[in-house]
């Protein structure tokens, strides 16, 4: 069992930055991919970024490329999402999640454990 807790959300103006954190406890976190997803009101949950368990590879949705950076610190059981040049369309609840051990996937249905989410609001 893995527990995930997100933090770092908030309200910013367009062009601003936020750094989201995902704290993990329990289970085999160091052998798990961690993904960030987001869900805006009335929309389906969508993939944002992921980082593999070694931190050697990361993948981004087209909407995040060039603006967001995902990193992890396995010694601290932490994953971060640095978000720059935020736009109103980035407004959503952001979730971190993990799929089964040593699995890489972008579909939310492949993810096993989820945090409670953190709200990001970007105003124009």
Report on the architecture of this protein.
There is one protein chain. This protein has 124 residues and is mostly beta strands. The protein has strands at residues 3-7, 10-13, 18-25, 34-39, 46-51, 58-60, 68-73, 78-83, 92-98, 113-114, 118-123. The strands form two sheets. Strands 2, 4, 5, 6, 9, 10 and 11 form a seven-stranded mixed sheet that branches. The protein starts with a strand and ends with a strand. The mean pLDDT is 95.
Can you give keywords for this protein?
124 residues, mainly beta, seven-stranded mixed beta sheet, four-stranded antiparallel beta sheet, globular
Structural class: mainly beta
* Count of β-strands: 11
End-to-end distance: 40 Å
| Broad shape | globular
User: What's the number of helices?
Assistant: 0
Largest β sheet strand count, sense and barrel closure = 7 strands, mixed
Give the ordered list of helices and strands.
Answer: EEEEEEEEEEE
Percentage of residues in strands: over 45%
Summarize model confidence as the mean pLDDT: 95
Rg over C-alpha atoms, rounded to the nearest angstrom = 13 Å
Helical content class: under 10%
């Amino acid at each position: 069992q893995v527990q995930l807790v997100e933090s770092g959300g908030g309200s910013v103006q367009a062009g601003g930055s936020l750094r989201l954190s995902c704290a993990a406890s329990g289970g085999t976190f160091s052998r798990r991919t961690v993904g960030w997803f987001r869900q805006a009101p009335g929309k389906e949950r969508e993939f944002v970024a992921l980082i593999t368990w070694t931190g050697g590879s990361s993948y981004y949705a087209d909407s995040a490329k060039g603006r967001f950076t995902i990193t992890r610190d396995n010694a601290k059981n932490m994953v971060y999402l640095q978000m720059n040049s935020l736009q109103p369309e980035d407004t959503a609840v952001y979730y971190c999640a993990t799929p089964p051990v040593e699995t890489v996937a972008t579909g939310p249905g492949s993810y096993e454990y989820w945090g409670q989410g953190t709200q990001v609001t970007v105003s124009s």
